[in-house]
Amino acid sequence: MSVHISRHVDDVLDNLSTRKDVTILAGGTDLLVEINFGRIRPSNIVAIDRVDELKDHSRNGHIRMGALVTYTRMLETDVGSPALQEAARTIGSPQIRNAATIGGNLGTCSPAGDTLPVLAALEATVVLRSKGGERRVAFGDFMTGPKKSVRRPDELIVAAEWEDAGEAQTYMFAATRNAMAISISGLALVVDRARRRVGVGLGSCGPTIIRATDAERFAAGLFDETGWDRPARPSDAAAREFGRLAAGAAKPIDDVRGTVAYRRHVLAVMGARALARVAVVP
Amino acid sequence: MRIKLTVNGDEREAEAADHESLLTVLRESLGLAGSKNACEQGECGSCSVLMDGELVCACLVLGAAAAGRRVQTVESLSDGDRLHPIQRAFVDAGAVQCGFCTPGLVVATYSLLKRNPEPSEQEVREALSGNICRCTGYGKILEAVDRASSAMYRR
Q1: CA-derived radius of gyration, chain B
Q2: Residue B109: which domain range?
Q3: How many Å apart are CA B142 and CA A29, to the nearest integer?
Q4: A182-201 b/e with 16+ CB inside 10 Å = b?
Q5: ipTM of the complex
Q6: Do B48 and A95 lie within an 8 Å CB cutoff?
Q7: What is the mean pLDDT of chain B?
Q8: pLDDT in tens, chain B (155 residues)
Q9: Residues of A in contact with B56 (CB under 8 A)
Q10: Chain A to chain B, count of Cβ pairs less than 8 Å apart?
Q11: Least CB–CB distance from A99: residue in B43, B56, B131
């Protein structure tokens, strides 16, 4: 095994382009579990956790979050998405949040990655860089299956970007307890009042993060009626219908964390609650 | 792989074998057995250490990638036989039963009180949510953190 500690993006890209079988190590909270349990034995590791260029975060209407922004930093600074902060707080424990990063969540690309439904609902873009240059991939096109993405072996995830969608957004999840539990299902709702757009991202209920487009259209119709610019409480029936449509988009499986029926049930409940919560936020 | 790192203020050289975690390096190569090895997946917090000042699970840090880091373990807290006020508070509150989780909880408490000297109970609960105790049921642990906060900051 070789371990290379990188301090610059260009050095990481050199390693990715010239060496075979390179495994990128960011916060380590996923990779070390795989190594500790003997499930993988990476031969060439490039540790990127000291690449300062990837720790930048900027917001000015448009948010660019460097791949190495940790969940702790998301909680300590105004990162430009309240839902992302809620998701960051659900993840792991202080120990995990100090190490784990947004880029790591994207790199692992698990359907249970808690930041990913939020990135889907925000219509975020994943920025990938290689020796050949940079390309931007919509999050909806980035993830192709459980732990599978369109990232090529010579590419590094350098940032996630999205347009500031305002304050009317939330992330909810159900798990056996608040800390240190993989979510049974998660739901992100973004109501971008300025752009008149609703985004719904579902996690842990399909092979990829799922956009609940019927629920999005239904909610957009409600805001068309009540006015996008002002907070308005939806009727119970409307909130329930939104939850039903959100749950209908899920493609869950039975597994150790929950059954198909339970996942659909919690998604419907979370959907209704999320709409009721977000619709009254200016 | 030979690595150099700073452990409890001292420059140390250690052997980090392929795929070994920082926890294994601390325990096996450097003989610092205070950080405990249990879940090896960041769930239990028994291996909590500070790395460059941040609370992390040593089991989730690749040993060879910890070269050049500044690591602080539970062994740094007491001064010979003189316990750190946090350790004293755990003893006085009876927050120790089998004792396996205690080093991790002490380090997590140290990290918390450094940032937040007088935390609310909710803040303590959240700060210690990554540390699992299977004996005492946490009541005494919460009491210990409160005692430590009083001893250290509310004079």
Answers
A1: 15
A2: 85-153
A3: 27
A4: bbbbbbbbbbbbeeebbbbb
A5: 0.96
A6: yes
A7: 96
A8: 999 999 999 999 999 999 999 999 999 999 999 999 999 999 999 999 999 999 999 999 999 999 999 999 999 999 999 999 999 999 999 999 999 999 999 999 999 999 999 999 999 999 999 999 999 789 999 999 999 999 999 75
A9: 95, 98-99
A10: 90
A11: B56
Dump the DSSP string for A212-232: -HHHHHHHHHHHHHH-TTS--
- Decide which of B55, B76, B97 is a domain's last residue: B76
Average pLDDT over residues A92-108: 96
Contacts of B108 in chain A (CB under 8 A): 94-95
Domain count, chain A: 2
The CATH number that applies at residue A28 is: 3.30.43
Q: Provide the token pair at B77.
A: 């807290």
Q: Does B39 touch chain A (CB under 8 A)?
A: no
Q: Do B56 and A178 touch (CB under 8 A)?
A: no
- Is the Cβ pair B130, A45 closer than 8 Å? no
Residues of B in contact with A33 (CB under 8 A): 40-42, 60
Q: Where are the beta strands (DSSP E) in chain A?
A: 2-5, 22-25, 44-47, 57-60, 62-66, 125-130, 133-138, 143-145, 148-149, 156-163, 169-174, 185-192, 197-203, 210-211
Structure-block tokens of residue A247: 């749950």
Contact assignment for B62 to A49 by CB distance below 8 Å: no
To test the contact with chain A by mutation, choose from B4, B5, B15, B18 the residue with the greatest count of A C-beta atoms within 10 A, namely B18
Are B6 and B71 members of one domain? yes
Can you say how many angstroms the Cα of residue B122 is from the centroid of all Cα atoms in its chain? Answer: 20
pLDDT in tens, A51-97: 999 999 999 999 999 999 999 999 999 999 999 999 999 888 999 99
CB-CB under 8 Å, A179 with B18: no
A142-152 per-position pLDDT tens digit: 999 999 999 99
Question: Domain of A244?
Answer: 169-279
